[in-house]
Design a protein that fits this description.
about 200 residues, alpha+beta, Ribosomal Protein S5, domain 2, 4-stranded antiparallel β-sheet, about 30% helix
């Protein structure tokens, strides 16, 4: 895995796969927390109350260490694992895929289910443009308000992301600095008079 970049998706997508009457609707979502996953799943259950299964897999975190699979009543290993397998084959993180199944009256058997969940997920991921994003380390900057323009020039120049901004007599700006530009950015900030910074190791 690249220590400086990770792959994810930016747009949700939906794809449909049918096998012997059963319909599989695969939904892919960009997510950054387990809470987002729960909200998307709850919304889909509301949208598809008559579906027999809402199977899912997600992988979250820059290192992809947070993940979960759910077969939601399908035979063990026949749904969640194949979904996660497709996510991992594209080396994606910060992504949730939910496959909603409407039963068509014919049992597909475990091999048939594995193929269906895998194929539906693959189709959804083909419709989700993959983007490469820099791994960022979060820092908090503190400075006088009149230095805002100078600081923001550096933030933009090095493609840092603004996480949070609090402005009172002085400005507190939380930013994410791309890991591969870390040294350059911190050197620039260190050179500025009256700007202090500290690292905040948050998710």
């Amino acid at each position: 895995m690249d220590p400086f970049f990770y792959n994810t998706i930016e747009q949700p997508a939906i794809a449909e796969y049918k096998d012997r009457g059963s319909k599989f609707l695969a939904y892919s979502f960009p997510v950054t927390s387990i809470d987002f996953c729960k909200k998307h799943l709850a919304a889909l259950k509301k949208e598809h109350p008559k579906a027999v299964h809402h199977c899912l897999a997600y992988r979250i975190g820059i290192d992809g260490s947070t993940f979960r699979v759910s077969d939601d009543g399908e035979p063990s290993g026949s749904a969640g694992r194949p979904i996660l397998g497709q996510i991992d084959s594209k080396q994606l993180t910060n992504i949730l895929v939910v496959v909603v199944r409407y039963f068509g009256g014919t049992l597909l058997g475990v091999p048939g289910l594995i193929n269906a969940y895998k194929t539906a997920t693959s189709l959804a991921l083909q419709l989700s443009p993959i983007v490469q994003k820099p791994v960022e380390i979060n820092y908090t900057l503190q400075f006088d308000y009149h230095q805002m323009n100078d600081v923001m020039m550096i933030v933009k120049q090095y493609n840092c992301s603004v996480v949070e901004q609090l402005a009172q007599l002085f400005v507190e700006l939380k930013i994410g600095i791309p890991k591969h530009r870390m040294e350059e950015v911190l050197n620039k900030i260190t050179d500025m008079q009256g700007v202090s910074f500290s690292t905040n190791l948050v998710e």
